[in-house]
Amino acid sequence: MFFERPESGEIAVLVHIDFNDQEDRHGPEEFVELAISAGADPVAVVTGSRQRPDSKFFVGTGKLDEIKDIVIREEAQVVLFDHSLSPSQERNLESVLKCRVLDRTGLILDIFAQRARTHEGKLQVELAQLQHMSTRLIRGWTHLERQKGGIGMRGPGETQLETDRRLLRDRIKAIQKRLEKVNSQRDQSRRARSRSDVPTISLVGYTNAGKSTLFNRATGAEVYAADQLFATLDPTLRRLDLEQVGPVVLADTVGFIRKLPHRLVKAFQATLKESAEADLLLHVVDAADINRDENIAAVDDVLNEIGANELPMLKVFNKIDALPTGEARIDRDEQGNPTRVWLSAREGVGIDLLEQAIAELLSDEIVKETIIVPANLGRFRAMLFEQGAVKGETYDELGQSVLELCLPRKDYLQILARVGMSEEQVQAA
Fold this sequence. Notes:
The chain folds into 3 domains: 10-102, GTPase HflX, N-terminal domain (Rossmann fold, 3-Layer(aba) Sandwich), CATH 3.40.50; 197-361, P-loop containing nucleotide triphosphate hydrolases (Rossmann fold); 365-428, Alpha-Beta Plaits. It is 39% helix and 22% strand. It is built from 14 helices and 15 strands. It has helices spanning 29-37, 61-74, 87-97, 104-115, 119-133, 138-141, 160-195, 211-219, 262-267, 269-276, 292-305, 351-361, 378-386, 409-418; strands at 10-19, 40-50, 78-81, 100-102, 200-205, 236-242, 246-252, 280-286, 313-318, 329-332, 338-342, 366-373, 390-395, 401-408, 427-428. It is elongated. It starts with 9 loop residues before the first strand and ends with a strand.
């Protein structure tokens, strides 16, 4: 029911209204992309401006007549609004326009339904769809009266609408129960990674910023990546070995968008926890997008909603190949810490700089020291070599080993514990 799509694109009329009190105004371009991503065939974009939405039709009567004329002329099958409509507004518009009306939330839900591939992803989308649909059920049942009585036909007296709402509630509870189980399994996996002290790095960013392309380039994976909105819905985790850090887990997650429906954020809570509990966030930004700053702000809003706004973050400005003077580089703050990396995931330019910046940001967990190891601590020296922690060895005038180390702090502390030493007992060169 929720994942079937027509084979050909539906003829659609798009409506985008600016409101005078709106702070974050933006054009209809992104909404056109959303409609195309959903499989629609936009034949017209109706724009306008108002002080505030009309309570009955959202738009004024003059604009409504304009939309109706276009619908009749183009034989449109659906009218898409780049706004949130109330159930009554949708019903009123449909009664006048004589075709389906869908708001921004319904359109995004439709795209998610098409993109979901895993069982978990489909459950999350269906939950959001059912919750959205529960307030709009009356549309489909206005032609039905109370169920008829009669011999063999008498029931509890529910209307068809009440019956359907009860069935929806039961289905929502069942999905929530299954998603709680998925959430529990993800929590177990995260706890296991935490116990093994493997850092988790999560890719976040606006939809179509190039997260999956970067993920594939960094890990050698073959995650689906395309130049379209919401190409990735289902989270993918891969192990990545960084020279100065060791193994880390890199997570590719769903993209964000302006006015991302709150129901979707709640439905994808288990997925988004990969971001909320990461050791480092890589905020991937489309450097060539004219709405770059607004997109960054939209992602920050969602990160704030899921409680991930306080996590360490590195901004990754992708697609520098689309800039006139784009060059790969690392931007740093006053303390010399990396804050931005400029790269092109598609061309593979600047990936080494990204790995360098990640290593620096995770360096609190890395021991980079030069130490002196006397001859009587041969076991300690051997264990450091076995760990692959020795990057160079020389000897001082007393014949003692001078070792240049680079290894995770947890491994260093384990080696010291095994030889019965503390960090204070190690002699620095």
